[in-house]
Amino acid sequence: MAAPATGRHAPRAGFRPTVWAAGRGVTAAQLRAVAILTGGAVGALARAGLAEAFSAHPGEWPWGTFIANQFGALLLAWLATELAEMVVPTRLWRPLLGTGLCGALTTFSAFQVETIQIARHDRPGLAAAYAVASIVVGMACAVAGSIYARRKAYG
Questions:
Q1: Can you list the alpha helix ranges (DSSP code H) found in 5-62?
Q2: What is the pTM of this model?
Q3: Tens digits of per-residue pLDDT, 30-67?
Q4: CB neighbours of 95 closer than 8 A, spacing ≥ 6?
Q5: Is the dihedral of CA 58, 138, 109, 55 positive or negative?
Q6: Which of 13, 28, 123, 152 is the most buried (most CB within 10 A)?
Q7: 83-98 as b/e: b if 16+ CB within 10 A
């Protein structure tokens, strides 16, 4: 028995970037590189924007880096949990958002340099507090991101 004609078509699999790219001579590796570069550009601009919006003098708490790192930990944990526990329509989400965006948004080097700068400005207690708070809050953000993804998926 044939289905009644309703003017609807069977749902398609959706846009598949690797198939689209292969038809144009672009390899999967090149497509991944473009995804990482695109995510990295957005993440770097976001981090620069935060650094500008929350500028700190040497020896002060670097709020821009702190916010970027904590948000990046939250986003990366949510993303990793979400992508690991669901079917993803494209394999480019992880390089685009995980490697590119979160990799450029978060910055261990700035965290390290700013911690040393705070200590060199005769504020070793603040430097230690910044280092401990960054690690503890970052871990809490990572746990919260994973919990949020699981609660959203499983109720």
A1: 17-22, 28-53
A2: 0.80
A3: 989 999 999 999 999 999 999 999 999 989 999 999 99
A4: 32, 35, 36, 39
A5: negative
A6: 123
A7: beeeeeeebbebbbbb
